[in-house]
């Protein structure tokens, strides 16, 4: 049940603004940019960020057109697996979080009639999760290399071909409680600033960029948070 802590996070003003749906940074007031930098410093220095990742690696028994079978009889449902993980021999199940402290501070800001700080800090939290996601992928890729494999790019429940309902099965396959993450009855992760994913290990694994994920997302025309503008 490996757990990774003390994970370095990269937080830039541009990442925070993208997570707020703001793309024209040039029109943003200098005071707002300064406030974001101050809030980033506060998050980093005041213990609001406690990034941690738990993962477990399972051997794959078989993959058919809409199911991935793990040794031991456990199954993940999804039509995406057969097309992008067909050469995988093992599957890393990963859950990560930045912890509950930042979310609690956001609530405090709103309770104290400081909604601008609350909104901006929430965006910082989302950007921190994005950074955690990337760092987790790097760590898992290193683990794959030590096992003589390549790592695929990550797949998260909710992407097309990997139903969000599989979140429950994901949490049965990884010790998420080791990093303080649980699911509500409706399947929402708590703390909210958390992420889950699966990554295939194999001799020749397919990889893709986040921009490619955005390009195939059903919300690509309306999403304010996509990595690149998507035509068509």
Give a written overview of the molecule.
The chain has 232 residues and is of the alpha+beta class. It has a single domain (3-206), classed as NADH Oxidase (3-Layer(aba) Sandwich), CATH 3.40.109.40. 36% of the residues lie in helices and 19% in strands. The protein contains seven helices and nine strands; from the N terminus they run βααβββαβααβαβββα. The strands form two sheets. Strands 1, 2, 3, 4, 5, 6 and 9 form a seven-stranded antiparallel beta sheet that branches. A two-stranded antiparallel ribbon has the order 7-8. Helix 1 (13-19) packs across helix 5 (115-146), helix 2 packs across helix 5 (115-146) and helix 4 (101-111) packs antiparallel against helix 5 (115-146). 34% of the residues are buried. The model has no long low-confidence stretch (mean pLDDT 90).
